[in-house]
Amino acid sequence: MREPLLLPVCGLATGIAAGRMAPFGFWDGIVAALALAGCAAMLARRRRPQAAAWVGALAMIPFGGWLADRTRPAPLPSFLVAGAEQRLAGCVVRPLAGPPDRPWFVLETAPGSRIRVSLNTPGHPARGTVHYGRRIAFTAKVREPRNFR
Question: How many domains would you assign to the chain?
C-alpha cells in the first residue's frame, strides 16, 4: 500500500461521525475494536495484507465511536440553571490561566464536579485572590459550553 494510514484514519473518522449520532459504550467500542484487530492480526499472519488492512480499518470504526462518546460534554449539574445568575462556591483546582484580558480558572464545586470560570471584567477585584487551593464564593452567570470539541 502506498498510503498505509489512509484506511485506519478513514475508519476512525467514520467511527467518530457514527459516535456523534448514536452512543457507543465500552463494550460496543473497545471490545469490538479489539476483536476486529485480532482478526486483522490473524489475517496478517496468514499473509493476507490487504484483507488485514481492511479489517484493521473496520476495527477503527467502533474505536472512533467510543472516542466520540468519551469526549461528549457532560450535561450541566442539576443545581445549575443555564442563563441565570447563581451563587457558586468551591475550591480553586487550577489557578488563573489564559490571556490577560480574559483569564479563566477551574473551580471544583463538589468532588468530581468542576466548572471553568472566565473573568470578563477588566480589573476585576478577584484577579489577585484566585490561587490554587483557595476556597472562594461568588455570584456568576452560568451558561452551557458552546463549540465544544
Answer: 2
**Cα-Cα-Cα-Cα dihedral of 44, 50, 55, 61, to 10°?**
130
Dist. CA 113–CA 145, nearest whole Å: 15
Q: What's the grid cell of residue 65?
A: 465511536
Interatomic CA distance for residues 40 and 53, integer angstroms: 7
Global pTM? Answer: 0.53
Q: Determine the average pLDDT of the residues in 80-105.
A: 83
Residue 114 scores a pLDDT above 60: yes
Average pLDDT in the chain: 80
Q: What range defines the domain where residue 13 resides?
A: 6-70
Grouping H, G, I as helix, E, B as strand and the rest as coil, residue 138 is strand
Grid cell at residue 75: 450535561
CB 1 within 8 A of CB 53: yes
Tell me, yes or no, whether 107 lies in a domain: yes
